Give the backbone structure.
Amino acid sequence: MKVTSLRDGYVDMPVRRLRQPGDKPFGDDLPAQVSLVDGALRLSVNAFAVDDGREITLIDTGSSNAWHPTMGFLPQALSEAEIAVDRIRTVAFTHTHLDHIHGLVLADGGDGFPQLSRLLVPRPELDMFRAEARLKRFHDRAEPFEPGQRLGPNIETIATAGHEVGHTCFRIVSGGETLLIWGDTVHVPSLQFDRPEVAWEFDADQEQARASRLRIMGLAADNGYFVAGAHLDSPGVGGVSRTETGFRFEPV
Ligand SMILES: [Zn+2]
């Protein structure tokens, strides 16, 4: 298996999106370790192409022109990686937020993946996906998947609800190594590994997101799994280890 990190771009977010337990924003108590760009949190936006030698499964698609203009560069990233879009037959979403699904349609209105034959959406978010008018042509093609479902010989889904009701990690196993493509488990890596209790304003259920984050970070740290995140600093792949109080991310 070969996994390629694809950079869709980045998005700048206000610090108040970070939430302490009790849905409390940070003020003067924002830890110095949080890196800011012009006073904002800069989140990478990544997607991942999983190539089993036969075909490519794309996990998330970036946001195309549906959100901030600092995103939507997935087509260029694919071209730089010399991945022909015609080889992408399967697209699977970690969840159905804007910055993950809109790459199905190019900024010029064309299909992002003309040979798409399988479009996999977490079952609890099928209605959310079908509410996106910009993606209307895909509404009937969306196929729901379940927790623990095998999408192929080397890809399995793990339910990690919280950030969204159907939020999912994809476990990729190959050659004795395991990678968790974990979507939005972490939004601000400079803080949320060290303090996994810190949540994100856009988490549908902050408490549940905290629990999922702790569980999946523990799974990675205790088993030596690599992780790949949609909002870890590009390219967003690394290892996780435990510290006294939380976790540490070691980028590769
Ligand atoms: Zn996201």
Notes: The chain has a mean pLDDT of 97.
